[in-house]
C-alpha cells in the first residue's frame, strides 16, 4: 500500500470511532529511541524513517513534526504522501497540540495508543485538550489497519558476565532499593529496555543494533520480578536470575500483575508508557521520579571504562584498515554508499568480540552528507567516485563496549569553503575536549564551546553536540547530554559522551567530526572538584581538509598529541602498506 492508502484506512477507523485526530508517536511500550520491527508504526504509516518524529492525522490533513536532524531527509521521504513537514524548534512552527485544537471542533475526540505514549506526553495532551473542550482517548486504532505486522523477535536473552559488567545484579538491585527507600517507594517499575538490561546484566537483540530485549522489571523492597518471553532465556541467563533472586514471569502477564498491586507507593518514571500509570493509579500512590538505575548506568565503573579503552583499539584498527581500503579503491572499483557501509561492517567483523553495528552506518557522499541521519538504501544509493567529500558516521557493538565515530574526508578535490568549514567544526571538537569544568556543570554549559568557532562565522548545526553512550548497550544513552537545551542532569566522572560538532550545506556537503570522551576527575581544591575529558576514540583526522593557518598553537598541539596517542595505540596492530599509509596520516603539523 502507498502512504495515502494507509492514511485513508486509518481515517476510516477514526470515523468509525468518532475520532477527529489521531497521533502516532515513534514509540513502543518501552519508549526507546529505536524500535522493534513490530512497533515501527509511524515509519510504516508515513514512510519517514527518522528516529525522531511523530505524525498527527485528522479527517483531511496530516502533519509530521521532527527536529533539525531530519529537515533535509523529511521532505524527501514525505514527498507525495500528503503529509506536511513541521520543523520542530523553528520559529513559526506551531505546537502540535495547538495545531490539533485548531483543526478539530469543540467537543472532538483525540486519540493515541496509551501503550506507545509516554505519561508526560499524555498529561500535556490531556491538560491542554481538556482546557479547550476536547477529549483524549486511548484507542490503538492502527491495530486494525496494520494487519501484517512483523512477529516479535525470538532472539535469545543471554548473560552479560561480571567480566564485562563489573557489578553484580544483587548489588545493582540493592542500590536501586536504597534509592527507592529514600523516595518512600515500596515498588518500582523499570520499563526502558536498556535499564532492564543493565540492571540484570542481561543482553539480547530484539531491537536492531541495540543489545536489548523486550521486558519489564518490577522491584519491591523484598522481591524482584522480570517479565519476559521465558522461551528466549538462555541457560546462563536463567541461572543468573535464580542466583540473583529474580523471579521470572511471562511478558504477557505484566499488566495483569500490576492490577493486583494495592496500597503501594510505586516509583515510575514520567517517560514510562501511559498504560502503566492507568494500571496502578486507582489503588496505589504514584511517585513520579526518574529511574534510579538510569544515572547509575551512565556512570561507568572501572571495568566498563577499561572495556571502552579495549574496544577503541579494535575499532580504531578496523577504521584505519577500512579508510585505507576506501581511499585506495575509490575511482578504481564500482562503489556506492551502501556497499561502502557493508565493507566497513566487514572490517569491524574481523575484530575480537564484535557483535554488530551500534546503529545503521551513515555513509553520505557529497550533498548526502548534509542529511544528518542519512541511510543509504541497498537499491539506488549514490555512486561514489574519487571526487568531492564523504561523511561516514558509524559504530560497533563489542562485548566490552560500544563505539561511535565520525570522520569526514576528501575523496578528490574539495573547495576552500569546505576546508574552512571543516576546520571550524574540528576547532569546536578540540575546544570542547580541552574543557575543564567544576562539579555541578550541565551539558548546556559546555555546548557553546563546540559551537563558538562556527558561531563566530554566523554558522551553526541543528543537532546536539554530545549524547551518552552505553557499555555494550544503546549508542544513545541518557540521562546526560551536551546540547543547547537545558538538561538538569549534572556531568559526572565516569560518564561517556560523544563530541560531534558539524556543519551542513544542503545541496553541497556535510561535515561532522566525532570522538567519544570520558569524564575524569582533574583536581579537587578549595573551590570545587574539577573535571576534564579524556578522548577514547582512536582514529586519525585528515589534515588535508584542515586549514592549518586557522588553528591556534593550542589546537595544533592538541591534534599532534592526539595523533601521537593514536599512533602509539594503533601502530603495533598495523603492518605493511596500511601501516605506511597510517603513519603518513599521523605525522605532526
TrEMBL record:
Q: Which GO terms describe its molecular function?
A: aminopeptidase activity
Question: What domain of life is recorded for the organism?
Answer: Bacteria
PROSITE patterns cross-referenced by the UniProt entry: PROLINE_PEPTIDASE
User: What are the Creatinase N-terminal domain coordinates in residue numbering?
Assistant: 8-138
Name of the protein: Aminopeptidase P family protein
Q: Where is the Peptidase M24 domain?
A: 315-520
Q: Which family does it belong to?
A: Belongs to the peptidase M24B family.
Q: Which residues form the Peptidase M24 C-terminal domain?
A: 530-584
What UniProt keywords apply to this chain's record, in alphabetical order? Aminopeptidase, Hydrolase, Metal-binding, Metalloprotease, Protease
